[in-house]
Amino acid sequence: MDLIIILKAFSDENRIRILNLLNHGELCVCEIEYILNMSQSNVSRHLNRLNYAKIIESYKKAQFVYYKLNDDTIKEHRFIKSILNNELYKIRQCKIDLDNLKKYRELKIDCNTMNLNKINS
């Protein structure tokens, strides 16, 4: 049953895009929203599906929730890492998302900074 849930989690382009980012390090919900240009509700819905499949895990730091790949699931189902490392770079949108991730990291902003910008806008 777990395998079916995992495979279903891979059946959505937005979840693939999120996994693509998380394969390059943990991110807060607001960072994922920013990088993928998606609404908070949409990102949260997809994160919940990935969390339910145990592909990702989360932890809270202050008022922010951070997500990362679940190492235990990745070790148990090695095909996941293979897909993340060997297949996603072939998808044009995933390449664009990684470029956006790189640009985001170069800006040296974080969730606190983004929230201040939203308040001051």
From TrEMBL:
Residues 1-95 form the HTH arsR-type domain. One of its GO terms (molecular function) is DNA-binding transcription factor activity. Keywords: DNA-binding, Transcription, Transcription regulation. PROSITE patterns: HTH_ARSR_2 (PS50987). The keyword DNA repair does not apply. This is Transcriptional repressor SdpR. It comes from Clostridium liquoris.
